[in-house]
Amino acid sequence: MLPSSAALGSAALALAFLAAVFAVVAALVGSRGQARWVDASRRAVYALCALLTACVVVIEVAFASDDFSFELVQQHSSIDTPAFYKLGAMWSSQEGSLLLWAWVLSIASSAALYATRNRLREVVPYATATMAAVAAFFTGLLLFGKGVDPFATLSPAPADGVGLNPLLRHPSMMIHPPMLYSGYVAFTIPFAFAIGALAARRLDAAWIRSTRRFALIAWAFLGLGLLLGARWSYTELGWGGYWAWDPVENAALMPWLTGTAFLHSIMVQEKRGMLKVWNVSLIVATFSLALMGTFLVRSGVLQSIHAFGDSTVGPYILGLIATVLLGSTALIVSRIDDLRSPRRIDSLASREAVFLVNNLLLVALCATIFWGTFFPLISELFTGERSSLAAPWFDQYTTPIAVVLVLFTGVGPLLAWRRISWASARRVFVVPAAVALVTGVTLVMLTDAAESFWALTLFVFAAFALTGLAQEFWRGATARRSLAGGSLPAAFLAVTSRNRRRYGGYLVHAGIAVLLVGIAASSSFQTKRDVTLRPGESAVVGDRTVTYERPTVSVDREAIEIGAVLGVERDGEPQATLRPSRRYFRPGAAEVGTIAGYFEGEATSEVGLDAGPTSDTWTSLGPNISGLRGDARDADRGFRACVGGDPGTPPQCRQLSRLMRAAAVDPRLQPVALAQIERLQTATAERLARGYLRADAPATFRVIVDPLVTWVWIGGLLALTGALIAIWPGRRPRRTPAAGGELEALKEAKYREIRDAELDHAAGKLSDEDFALLDAELRREAVEILDREPVGRGSAS
Amino acid sequence: MDSARKRKVRLVVALGTAVLLAAALVYTSFSASTEALEPSQLLAASPGTSAELTGRVVKGSVRRQEESLRFRVADRDDASKSIPVAYSGTVPDPFRGGREIILTGTVEGEGVFVGERDTLVTKCPSKFSSADAA
Fold it and tell me: How far is CA A693 from CA A547, A563, A619, A709, in A?
């Protein structure tokens, strides 16, 4: 007999665990200089990736083919679940999301090891061991953990599954968790290479150059995950907000913040050889926070909307976090002498000084959020009482930091590395400062922006940042044109594609500034009203008039949907017709359900949204269903009487009652009887629905007029586009023999620095004298690198 | 002033500021927080006690009364101890009998816990099982 696919999956998982363990051992043996073992460990990681892919395929096939002999499938899917959601249902479970973690980790590790196969000879073995150890942890958890076996089977296989929570049936819900997980997981790569660099005492910027792109990818995935979660909350949860300082949201934001700091501070190490201790500490913190994010979702330690039941694996993940923190700290302390840099920051008016300040702000922001998030545990520790902090506390601290950070998104790009002269500073700062000033004055005179000090300050700073960034693009493009000619748009594209990191980064900054403007405006100046209206009545919210035109109802097998048609007018002009609704899901299968059951099961809001560049009109509906609920109970009672064949019931009841009795004896008649019942129930539900339409019942609406909220999404997408530009690989440098790989990378980096300085000079950020000094310095450093090249190759000068 | 001294001064100033800010953070967090209590702890509480109520909504207790929602919340692990709750404002989609909730509010006369507007948080189940149905 062929083994079942669940058995195959289990076997693949067990082999994956062994491959991970083997990779750890082989890499550690290989770290003593035996290249064959290092190669073997790399291949073991590739094998791990293949095996985990097989596991995921087995599970996805089971979901797609409704194989309810899999407990996982039975618990999280059903025949009626739409196909798209069947494929995403895997990660709505604990075991599925752990498998996803391990799988994504194996992909990222394989990619990182392939990219560094000819580089970082001393660092790679330890990095491999670190990555494989994390993979071994997660696959081991799936294998040996209690209640998390993704291949657990049910025998006999049930006919249908429980189904996926209707709340989770939203396209962004299918993408949101894997994006967040990919972000968490991808931070393993820079972490592992940092550990490798520490262990091998190779503490130059080589490990950073090899993993910078992974850090950026992790950052972008985490950012996209956060953005999707916010969007889902805004359009699906029916409360009208996109951020609630919920512990699990915070858990995802924290590694994103330290990751942002890391992406900036590694540039200082790359260019100036400074901040080494800071960088390794930041990546350790980021990885630990990423693990913490994984842990918090599944732990039930903190009260959160996301806490999906108490988990059995929490303590193990906590153990891993403790190991990571203790081990890394010990390693950093033991290498502290190698991590010291002889260099100092030359001037406070330099890019590296600004990066340092922005790093401190980001870490302070993260620390504040950490304190607030874990405050229930902290207060329990000190006072014995569990107390928690609400959104206003978070706002009070995060707002000022965010406002200053917006200023820095503009200041940083305007400054040159090492130093900026007074004259150059004046040249680059004058236009953005003037625009910021004009923006501030205009806002105070023409709008109510002055009502909120922080919002106004943020708008002014954002104007400064956006102008500064635009000026950077402009100067880069004109400098390029003066060098190479061509049209301005062509020069613009050329300068961007030749300096992807720089201009991609600028675009990220612009996106973040726009996003924060959206957040400031929509949180400080929104108008929110809860109104109860009968059909035909209107309410005024801000500058909008909302009229409840008529109710709507629809009934299907799965749910009763009650909706409303709302007319929105702005300044007397009709602006939009919105259709907010609420779907009441019948719990369980139709045969056991009653009509009243519709109103006791899950309900989801569909928001009526009119999005616009200046403001959104957001509406949700809370229908008054008490009448409907009473009618449903009456109908159910009538129905039971009917099925029981009570005296006085109509003839079709007696017929149904006969059918039911026959079905009780003969199972073959059951489907016919059930279909009959379902038909009758649906007809009754439809009759009740028509009654609701006639009743002119009042309904409660929440109406929010939210200014500039669209720019939250636009800014987020802009930032992600910028990240994509920065991640996108540039032209491949010409192929070099394996041995020269590292030197080549070093040379490449130095050439890039020289080009950067030339661009800064052409764009007016470096004065002629400063540029001459810097250029000479960089060229001397480049010659030093060239001198290191083996004789007979290249042009040793 | 030589540069090493200057750096030391800078460091002390920066650390001093950080410590001050951290102290402010700690201080305000203790004064701004609300205590999380379960119904059994609130049963004996005197009127006026503010708290963050955590617990499980008693199945079949949810009633809508004009603008507000009335229901009972019991301890998570002990369904026998429950307290009446009045709440108006947004009701999250997952809210229903049997679900765990978090609600900020105050105990008022007759022992009714009155929730602040829009503070109701309902825990999101990752799957729906019919056993949960009220």
Answer: 17, 10, 20, 34
Q: Contacts by A264-267 with C-beta closer than 8 Å and gap 24+? A: A264/A355, A264/A358, A264/A359, A264/A412, A265/A355, A265/A356, A265/A359, A266/A205, A266/A208, A266/A212, A266/A215, A267/A355
The two tokens of residue A112 are 């990182």
Please tell me what DSSP assigns to residue A580: -
Report how far residue A617's alpha carbon sits from residue A208's, in angstroms, rounded to the nearest whole number.
46
The torsion defined by the Cα of A701, A705, A711 and A712, in degrees rounded to 10, comes to: -50
- Taking CA A586 as the corner, what is the angle to CA A581 and CA A592, rounded to the nearest 5 degrees? 165
Interface test with A, best of B73, B126, B129 (most A CBs within 10 A): B126
Out of A93, A364, A600, name the one closest to residue B134 (CB): A600
Distance of CA A430 to the CA centre of its chain: 37
Residue in chain B nearest A96 by alpha carbon: B126
pTM value is 0.88
Mutate which of B27, B77, B128 to disrupt the A interface (most A C-beta within 10 Å)?
A: B128
Written as six digits, the tokens of A307 are 């806490």
> How many CA within 13 A on the CB side of residue A369?
27
pLDDT in tens, A434-464: 999 999 999 999 888 888 999 999 999 999 9
Write out pLDDT tens, residues B45-64.
788 888 888 888 888 888 87
Q: Express as a percent the part of chain B with pLDDT over 70.
A: 87
Task: Inspect the interface and report whether the beta carbons of A163 and B128 lie closer than 8 Å.
Answer: yes
B109 CA: distance to closest CA in chain A (Å): 24
8 A C-beta contact, residue A525 and residue A704 = no
What is the SS3 assignment for A127?
helix
- B60 in the Ramachandran plot: left (φ > 0), alpha (ψ -120 to 50) or beta? left
